[in-house]
Design a protein that fits this description.
The structure is a homohexamer. Chain A is an alpha+beta fold. Chain A is built from 12 helices and 7 strands. Chain A has a 5-stranded mixed barrel with strand order 1-2-3-5-4. In chain A, strands 6-7 form a two-stranded antiparallel ribbon.
Chain lengths: 328, 328, 328, 328, 328, 328
């Protein structure tokens, strides 16, 4: 496993075949120290990339290599991939060291937004800057001011625990695309109050910054997220902030809070009220659409070469089909 | 319709028969001035008592009698009850004047709590007084302090628009009986944190003071009630108040807010989260039970003599059956 | 009812008050000849405008006026509006004649698209003209060629029997706005095959030209519409046409037929398959959004001055709320 | 594994850690003789305590130890607990002998009621003794007479196959707590016929004595339980017994049978009729509450130290949360 | 209205047109004495035939004609049918007398079975006679023995309150056709235990003899029908009878009781258990089919000439379509 | 494993016991070449018969025996069956050779129709031959003409991917039994247009020939099957063929297409319209019945000796019970 040998391109998890010798870079997702029956230690790893994850087992040099494979790190791994008839697939690790930064592309290892965070932030600032209504503008600026506590968390947060945009900056990516979609549809449906709808789109998921915690890569619901729910948490944050702004019109406040409360669209999906304004209807629909299209992105990344159908997916309540684009 | 003649007991709406001459006291629920085809005015009234309501029509002396029949007032009415083969039932009013206070029993005219409001308030104060936890105690006292704005509204409010306890003081009656039921069940199920559950029971419906308005007898949902929902409104009120109390323990706050948010028991009934603590489960169940038993009370009042079955009732998703108690 | 007197603006059905004298233009929706108990004829009319409909009764000069009030015609009506306590609202017609073309605005009488049909046709031709894929382009041109039988029907057809765009050119208006919305969202979600999605959006409802018939103003489901359903009818039309085009790629055909079959989004809404491509997901969502926003438009037209809430609406599964725009 | 060494407290299944040496008492739930590939026998055991169960494997001295580990017995086990990376958790048993009665607490090994059976029986006799209605009293005495066949089975039976009170005397515990809860709620809701409701609460689940069989610790549905269901079986038992009692009033019989038939509350939960009396509503609700609180008890026992959330639980349709009580 | 004039064929309710003079035979369904505003009496009748019902009003000679129009009787009525623009359709009765037996066909007046009751009884006896299993045979003979109390009620009972075969002998007709259908399908599906299935088909609805009462033509649910339900009532009847027969095999009893309990097919339709044998599956399906086809029969009778579509029907969850048979 | 030794009867998968020596014939369902950790190859097989399947592992003589065990072939296998405590059940194969044709019964190895395909084809021809309506007759003959492409595929196709008749000729068996059942029920329900219903029963599943592919024994949904669904595919096939037949009556065509489109009975089961004719109702019901009874057949085959209950089965939404027939 000398460094020069990695001129071949990345070997992806989805493409591994039984018996294959592997020398490639993966990210460590989990690391557990276990005991063999003879009492000696071994390491059980979860090694992943953007297409999936496999189990790795390291039987030798455990103490020496332990520190190299902290969760979250990129490691270059040499070993053999084997599908045992009884025990399933695993990678027996023969060698492992931290990967050099030039040995891999970050987007091969972890899911992440399609655009750079700076570019997304610029898109957000542009939408905020277009807001003429002074009250909505002030509200957005309070939440999204560089350096504010909420902005820092919102910018980093994932959009979900799984299903779609379950990665760093995912919430920013999701809310921005919903707000941009809402903005562009207002051209087709001119009766909509565009600024109210766009503001609602940007703020609709703000409760997620309190509902999710990200701890060494794992996205978990917090106690507050489970006991109060992201919708109530976001409603409280926005209503508290509105009440701080002098003269915020009651109608605008009602309209905005209604978007947040109703954005899941149906009681059985956790909204305590259903959308009854055009703006709430629009934000709910585009949010839903954005979530579903995010699931298509996630499923496409995990699809092996030549396959067109994903397996059954809970977020879609079905399978996804990806036609070859050239054929069209 | 001289005053002496009303020695006979109250004639109830549910017992009226075609062709019957009527001289009794009713409450005016609605009053509308209409035009006959010849352009002369007449009055269309809705006259009610605790057993139901009928249409009354007053063809003569409209200007003279108009002021006597303001909605909400008790009137002594003389007239003829008639079931027209085509146009349904109505009472042709021949005479009408404000009822003297000794001509009727208030409980014959309007639904209301089974106990005096003072007695219910005493029951509430007793439950609050039994609360040892200083934070819960302070929170309850802030909401229920005599003279506070919220206490005044809460004491007067109805528990619902229809279905159960849809009358003045109905909310107090309902919340008190739920809290008392919760209190007594803690004897059977000792694992429950009694003070948390009782506090949650007292506060669970507090959002209704902003979700309902009572206007000249008619109970209506407010804009906030429709756009935000009673659960979000109550959650906000309680969380804001908790944040005003120094040192309120986070766990207790979470437990109490969770009771409020989850008390409808299921997402499809408008709770954004489902009960996941013993206390929330208990409050939800006793609230539900109290609502259903309130519907039995309402249906029993409207039942004609000798009948045992109500009609289909939406709140019960079925009919109610009232066996004669003596038979048992 | 001389012609000069109609300088006052249109009196709308939604604004009529008990006892009001009326002299305004309405459209005749239904006309029925009935018999009085004495055997003489009278006419029962349904008179409407864009805000609703009322019953009109014409007791005199029946034979003379009968021909003037053929369904679909605009008539100038003089009479008295009266809300009878028992029999409800009606307009007693004293005089009636065909309206002059300059006595009314067509848009006051009948619902219709917000834009002129020529303008909508231009929008359609622009979308078709942007289609680079030669097979999709040919398919669209076959269906939408000026003078083709299908184009003539499609251009005239309503989008629904009630709920949204239930008027002439409504199908064109609906499909065009869905296609334009789909087109604009492809900017936000670039993974989508834009031409396939836009073509699917234009064709998704084409079965409605066989599923609905319009007969003297009334929109009805045909036998084929009830026994086969609009989705199967549209699928057959498009698949038959595709099979006529030499070399139409199988993948493109599958993708397009899948959009049509799945556009109701769920089995229980009548789609025999659920969307499993990005394009089908997008068309379903924007179709759904367009239908809901069309319901908001319909409900807003029927709202009386000063009201903000519609009644419960089946298409929305709730009420619609219209905040005053100025407040925002 | 000498007897003196077990001075340390019980080691619970939920607390076992990979690599831990174990010397503690467990109950044998299952015992299977298996063959190694070389044809020699080994034993596979399921060893449990109140917090869960693990697999035990005994490779040596099989014939000698076989008789010691009959299902249902308490055994003292020495061995090593090991979580194999591929094959999961198991306890390799090195030594095993019947446990002495003073080596363990019964409540550490098996779930069971919180109170002694004699105490529960006394509670039952007290409720029966309070029954004034002579017909209900006779009926209860026939079923619960000491020494009667039904009493013997009812007293021993579990309340369920899993979920709540799935242990010996569980049915007695469950029905008693439901009856006591019903009794205490009658103070809050005085319209209820207390004796009818309490009798219904005691008898509501009596069909379970024919619907479940308990065979060497395993609770199973009988053929009759599956083909007829516990509700029909209980209804038949009670109606047959009522018909044996001269002069049993028809109304009381109807009211009692209705409680039994409707106590699942909804058709989709297996009740052929829904509750339409106050008494049936009350018994259904308290039964439901008792079942849910029983699930909280079960989940709390299996919770590891420091954890507050159970996993998703089917009986609750969610997770259970246990706040630390001290915090409040 | 002399007797000779009725040579014209029956005028059916479904074919009446506004203004039509009527002289035909109808059956009286309801008779109510009412008061005019001047205190004089008049009669309100409901007059029906197999195609529907209308309101009749008799203003004169009330005392004289009252006795002629007892509910259930066939009367010859002369009068005028009139559709009032406001008050709907009614028949103003000018003359009325008891109809002669030769003035009408019974099947024109009342729904009834397609075959004579003797013919249906013969069909039943044939199926019973084919039963070889001595226990099933004895059970069927006990229930269906001529002269037994149950047979008398079963033979007369309707199959339902509305929807299908809601007329005298309807239960016999329905159960016989289900049993015959079950019998004939056993040829196609030979794995089925034919005698068990046919016996179950004959007995599946036997609880209806206690669940329904027929009182002067009106079919009503009894208290037992509402509180216990037809399924529990039938289960009790059959199980009681089985227990009277010495040596009745347990398996056969279980199989038969399971058919009765599960014949609604789903918990939400009121069966406490779902079919889990071939025989129960078959009886459920053919019962369901028989009910739906009975609804088609009912709807076809009420269809006006030239119409092919019924209105929406709850029993079918849709409309029924009747193609002209010749076209096929 | 000499050939003479196989005089003992077939050993079935469902009856294998831990430690049993096996010498019997199975069919190979899957064959995979794998690598041991030392790099040597071994074979993993799936060996089945009509009662189930087990894993077989062949460690030696891999290259020699590889060709003998092509999927689909019957092999005589000698080996040991072993249930490992951790790794589950498998058969260690010691010897294997192609089975002689006289060593096994085909029906012991593979599920298949209960009758010979020739016999089923004769049944089909008989039903077609009874069709008097010339248009229906021609349509059936076009589809079922010996030698036609569709007939060849239809005759071979399975009826489903799993659940019922998931084997060669299963579609023919299923459609024939549905058509025969429909035919026989027309005796009981004479209002049905028998020829239309029988034709619909024969054609209802014809889309399955394009929706399923059978590839070396595995039944899979095709792209068209997933994207268009079997119902739309069958509708297109039949409508295209009808349009080829001159003078095919519109009513008959509508009736037949409606049967195909509605035969799943409910929208949520994938029918875009629900049955609204007697014939469609009948075909839907008998199809459903046939599918359920096919599931009973499948479950009974896999039942071990002495068992009466299957496990939970998704197709039945429950378990199946098989009483011993003798008991009845």
């Amino acid at each position: 496993m000398d460094q020069q040998s990695l001129t071949a391109s990345k070997v992806f998890v989805r493409d591994l075949a039984d018996g294959q010798a592997v020398d490639s870079v993966f990210v460590v997702r989990e690391r557990t120290r276990r005991q063999k029956k003879n009492g000696e230690p071994f390491l059980k790893l979860q090694l992943g990339d953007v297409t999936g994850a496999i189990e790795g087992v390291l039987w030798e040099r455990v103490d020496e290599l332990f520190e190299y494979c902290a969760p979250g790190g990129a490691v270059r791994v040499a070993g053999n991939f084997c599908v045992d008839p009884k025990y399933g697939a695993s990678l027996t690790v023969r060698g492992l060291r931290p990967a050099e930064r030039n040995e891999y592309e970050a987007r091969d290892l972890e899911e992440g937004p399609a655009h750079a965070v700076e570019q997304m932030e610029a898109g957000l600032r542009e939408l905020v800057g277009m807001t003429q209504n002074p009250f909505l503008r002030e509200l957005l600026e309070r939440f999204f001011a560089s350096g504010s506590r909420i902005w820092e968390r919102w910018r980093e947060a994932p959009a979900a625990k799984r299903y779609h945009q379950a990665y760093r900056h995912g919430l920013l990516e999701h809310c921005l695309s919903v707000a941009q979609g809402v903005h562009s549809l207002c051209g087709t449906f001119p009766e909509i109050d565009r600024e109210l709808a766009v503001s609602g789109a940007l703020l609709h998921d703000i409760g997620k910054i309190e509902a999710y915690s990200v701890d060494s890569g794992a996205i978990e619901l917090t106690d507050a997220g489970k006991l109060q729910g992201e919708i109530a948490l976001g409603y409280y944050l926005v209503r508290r902030e509105i009440e701080e702004i002098d003269g915020f019109p009651a109608d605008t406040a009602e309209g905005l809070l209604h978007i947040i409360l109703s954005h899941h669209g149906q009681l059985e999906h956790g909204s305590p009220v259903v959308p009854c304004t055009r703006e709430a209807t629009l934000v709910h629909m585009v949010d839903n659409l954005g979530g579903k299209l995010g699931s298509f992105d996630r499923l496409e990344k995990a699809l092996a070469d030549g396959e067109r159908w994903s397996g059954f997916d809970r977020a879609l309540s079905g399978s996804a089909y990806f036609a070859s684009r050239e054929a069209a």
